[in-house]
Specification:
The structure is a homodimer.
Chain A: E1 3-5, H1 14-23, E2 31-35, E3 41-47, E4 54-60, E5 69-75, H2 81-91, E6 96-100, H3 111-131, E7 139-143, E8 155-159, H4 168-171, E9 180-185, H5 193-201, E10 205-207, H6 216-234
Parallel strand pairs in A: 1-2, 5-6, 5-9, 6-7, 8-9, 8-10
Antiparallel strand pairs in A: 2-3, 3-4
Helix pairs in contact in A: 2-3, 2-6
Pfam families (chains A, B): Methyltrans_RNA (PF04452), PUA_4 (PF20260)
Keywords (chains A, B): Cytoplasm, Methyltransferase, rRNA processing, S-adenosyl-L-methionine, Transferase
EC number (chains A, B): 2.1.1.193
Chain lengths: 235, 235
């Protein structure tokens, strides 16, 4: 069944009208799933006679209980790598993505550029969350450097190719339901040594994500799959 | 350091000459890593005076011991989804990819089309293995339907969205180093019930890959990351 996210006023978003009416060709009386901004989802019946589109709530749906807050801190990549990360990390269950400019980031980001990009990334996250049948949409933020990063997580990890022997699955056995977990992935050029020292000061533990070199845009998926796998088991 | 795969005659492949000479602008005496078709890798010194390019072996490299044979059986996807799977599954450590036409595959494949595609997929796998610093390149095959699938694996799993409670990490705790492990991922439209019955007859165990709906091209990455994570721990 199609799932849509409501806006703050509990209305079907204008952006979704076209999808409902023209792409899906839905009719009044058709059932859909609607999720509120707090992550509660309902079975609902559409009423399409008027604009704005209306609906009638039928019953609440069982939703997956929030298993923890998973934050991906991703070194800014070039080209469409950031879009790739938003799209697929959303499917892999991330709750927050923080793009961060790092010393070896080839693409640079200023506040003005970020303002434009953020809108686009949020749309991608919303659409990906809808298709993945998530009940929440990840938030997306930007930080100008590692110094600006608040290390306030229950567990914080950084993927570091020189630490491949620190098997990620061993390092995360201790995570519990409800913990906040951060995973930092460097940009294409890797993580500078001074940044690494700063991250360790902030409590980040370096981990290996397997014995191969992963491109930056998929390294996060390797890590998120393993975090989700462990949390699924503990649920 | 750059890594290249040698051909059956232990020569640097013609396809790599351009990369070595023009893209990387290497000089005689530069060090590279070379891997044989059997997965042994060496540090070597280039000698570029003549065509074909020559090299001198310096010393064998420690390579990751084969941890098991991981086979991805992937329902044929449309557009460039198959290329996506080859590229990234190679980075996630797959040893064999079998594309399979399934009842709900939107794109169809005949032997003639496959012949053309196979070449392209093998090139993508080779390049991805090189970048990931693997010592082997996955093989790529095609089967016309589930019936043609040989179920001869130590452990065979099929991702099935109706079985989300069968947590993958629990199901694969028993895998051991050296085992042959298969993971089947259906096409966009999912797996037909008759196909599912046939798979179970062949010994496939259905598993859930998290509590969201994953697009077919990344579902394999979720599964491969968890398999690799468990094998890394057992190595």
């Amino acid at each position: 069944m199609q799932r849509y996210f409501l806006d703050d006023q509990q209305q079907i978003k204008k952006d979704d009208w076209h999808h409902i009416l023209t792409v899906m060709r839905m009719q009044s009386g058709d059932d859909i799933e609607l999720c509120t901004t707090t992550g509660q989802c309902y079975l609902a019946k559409l009423s399409l006679e008027n604009i704005p589109l209306k609906y009638e709530m039928i019953q609440p749906l069982d939703v997956v209980i929030n298993k923890g807050k998973i934050t991906l801190i991703q070194g800014i990549g070039k080209g469409d790598k950031n879009e790739f990360v938003v799209k697929y990390a959303t499917q892999f269950g991330v709750d927050q993505i923080i793009f961060i400019e790092m010393k070896r980031s080839i693409s640079k980001m200023d506040d003005q550029t970020w303002h434009k990009k953020k809108d686009r990334y949020e749309k991608i996250a919303l659409e990906s969350a809808r298709l993945a049948h998530r009940n929440t949409v990840p938030t997306i933020d930007f930080l100008p450097n590692i110094k600006a990063l608040n290390g306030d997580f229950s567990h914080a990890f950084v993927a570091y190719e020189n630490d491949r022997k620190a098997v990620f699955l061993d390092k995360i056995e201790g995570i519990k339901n409800g913990d906040s977990i951060a995973l930092l992935i460097g940009p294409e050029g890797g993580i500078d040594e001074l940044e690494m020292a700063l991250l360790k000061d902030k409590g980040f533990i370096s981990v290996g994500l397997g014995n191969r070199i992963l491109q930056t845009e998929v390294a996060c998926l390797y890590g998120l799959a393993i975090i989700d796998g462990v949390l699924e088991r503990k649920r």
